Amino acid sequence: MRPSRQLALTGLLVFSLIPSQLCQMHGVNETNFWHIKPLINTMLNSKYTERFQDANVLLTFRLVGIKSQRLEQQLSGQIKEDINSREMDLTSGQLALDILALGACENQDREFIHGAHLVSKLGVKFQAEIQNMEAHGGSPLTNYYQLSLALLALCLFNGSYSITSVTYYFTPENKNYYFEDQFSVDTGAMAVLALTCVRRDTQKKMTASTKRKISGYVASLANKIQAEGNQGLLGNIFSTGEAMQALFVSSDYYKNERNCRETLHAVFDNISQGVFYMPIAAAQILSALMGKTYLDVISPSFKFNVSTEKPVTATPTTAPLNILVKYSVRINKTSHTEVTVRKGSVFLDVMKAAQEKNETLFRFTVEETSWGPFVTSVQGISASSKDRTYWKLLSNGQPLTQGAGSHVVQNGDNLEVRWSKY
Ligand code: B12
Ligand SMILES: *[C@@H]1O[C@H](CO)[C@@H](O)[C@H](O)[C@H]1NC(C)=O
Ligand SMILES: *[C@@H]1O[C@H](CO)[C@@H](O)[C@H](O)[C@H]1NC(C)=O
Ligand SMILES: *[C@@H]1O[C@H](CO)[C@@H](O)[C@H](O)[C@H]1NC(C)=O
Ligand SMILES: *[C@@H]1O[C@H](CO)[C@@H](O)[C@H](O)[C@H]1NC(C)=O
Ligand SMILES: *[C@@H]1O[C@H](CO)[C@@H](O)[C@H](O)[C@H]1NC(C)=O
Ligand SMILES: *[C@@H]1O[C@H](CO)[C@@H](O)[C@H](O)[C@H]1NC(C)=O
User: Which ligand is nearest to the CA of 140?
Assistant: First the structure.
């Protein structure tokens, strides 16, 4: 169990701020606000010693107007330090998120963006993605989620980008919206936000036909997102927040009370089960629940103060019990083993136990990211975004919706890492 803190909210005027057109009847309001408190607590109480999750968290804090001076200072300081030390190494999406977070809702960090010429540097990174697609069969350096983040930040912060490239590369049929033939709802949602910004951009002189074209892309992507609707979720639980944002700005989906009720029910249910215990996961859904989208980043936001009390130390958890699971590594042929781990173990613990049994077959490496450890190699074979290869995680034949550091395994599970192409 993670330590939790009680949250005290002062000046709770926030509800009058929720745009009235969004989930009007059944959005977050005074009566159901307690549902989202765990998200705010998670974001407030994480340590942020690593740099990874700063930008998403700071962005959401500023966007929804939660004022915690201590945390804002810490996160914005860490982001600036990171930009100063490894600006060249930042990917397009990372720099875009940094700009969105630093520049969100009128604050003095905008001077830093300006002074360090971050927007024009992002323009260069965006251009490099396009050039890579031209040279390498349409594959960007990173992915379309990041290209969309970059386009969104360029559009919101008056950067330069080519409309011709946008209309060429963001057609809804582009393969980069898909991973292994599966439409990526997160990616489509980010593209809808970016393209909506582009369509509204008054700085750009666009012909009526270009505008119509972009509107067509937005509508088509919004339809694909809705087609992934399932028991109130859009895609899975972790894509739902960004999908909500996309549908807010592009469709009438949430004008329908029933859709709104279904999504909120599913999301509140998952919040109460602790599904959003990672600050990045909490940050990605909170904006939508508070009726905000990343397009609101350029507007000022009302603030309400939060104060935190001392942590309540968690009670020690259950006695250790062992469970037995199967584990396999599948490349062209499959290597199997069985390992015993403590009850409550995560996928990564199983990988470690297997590695201890046979280093040759089960050795692996991970890289720390904003979502936790990402499996980069197994048996010495490394994932590569250039070749669009990765190590896919599965349990009982189903792909996981969480990473190796989060997915809790159960007795008898059949776990697998599979060499895959996306
Ligand atoms: C692109 C993408 C991928 C690509 C990444 C490679 C590439 N060339 O870009 C591929 C297809 C390989 C991928 C794989 C997986 N992904 Co993915 N991915 C995304 C996506 C759409 C965008 C990530 C991004 O670029 N962010 C922006 C940049 C600026 O941030 P970043 O931190 O630098 O991004 C890096 C990490 O996010 C990392 N990454 C990507 N996915 C995952 C997943 C996990 C668990 C970790 C630790 C890291 C990680 O790759 C990014 C690029 O280097 C997100 C959507 C989202 N909402 O974030 C899902 C998302 C992060 N992925 C997710 C999942 C579940 C996975 C898999 C575990 C799926 C599986 N069953 O195997 C695997 C990871 C397995 C492993 N080897 O450890 C979930 C995570 C949910 C959670 N609570 O943990 C998300 C939120 C999608 C979703 N809605 O389910 N993913
Ligand atoms: C929030 O705190 C700041 C600084 O303590 C104070 O100036 C401001 O009035 C407070 N705002 C609200 C809404 O309580
Ligand atoms: C708040 O939303 C719930 C549904 O989520 C609804 O039943 C309730 O009537 C709303 N309360 C107010 C005060 O608007
Ligand atoms: C972008 O330019 C417009 C018009 O020149 C200006 O009003 C706006 O403040 C600028 N936005 C940012 C974030 O600099
Ligand atoms: C999350 O919501 C979905 C859809 O309602 C539901 O099927 C699932 O069981 C929930 N997960 C948890 C852990 O509550
Ligand atoms: C799998 O088999 C194919 C065809 O025999 C081969 O080209 C490929 O290199 C093998 N992959 C790995 C990772 O060993
Ligand atoms: C690991 O597996 C390989 C291939 O099956 C085998 O040759 C080797 O002896 C195993 N090593 C150990 C330590 O069990």
Answer: 1
CB of 381 sitting under 6 A from ligand 6:
yes
What would the pLDDT profile of 215-256 be if each residue is shown by its tens digit? 999 999 999 999 999 999 999 999 999 999 999 999 999 888
First to last CA, the chain: 35
Q: Which atom of ligand 3 is closest in space to residue 29's alpha carbon?
A: 1
Domain that holds residue 346: 322-421
7 and 308 Cβ atoms separated by less than 8 Å: yes
Shared-domain flag, residues 33 and 145: yes
| Non-local CB neighbours of 391 within 8 Å, separated by 6+ positions | 375, 376, 377, 378, 383, 417, 418, 419, 420
Q: Give the contacts of 303 (CB within 8 A, at least 6 positions apart).
A: 65, 66, 67
Most informative mutation of 269, 285, 402, 406 for ligand 5 (most atoms within 8 A of CB): 269
If asked whether residues 360 and 223 sit together in one domain, one would say: no
pLDDT tens digits, residue range 316-356? 556 678 999 999 999 999 999 999 999 999 999 999 999 99
The residue from 259, 283, 307 where one domain ends is 307
Query: Using one digit for the tens of pLDDT, what is the confidence trace for 168-211?
Result: 999 999 999 999 999 999 999 999 999 999 999 888 888 999 99
Q: What is the pTM of this model?
A: 0.90
- Residue 7 Cβ < 6 Å to ligand 6: no
Asked whether residue 262 falls in the same domain as residue 199, the answer is yes
CA of 294 from ligand 1 middle (Å) equals 20
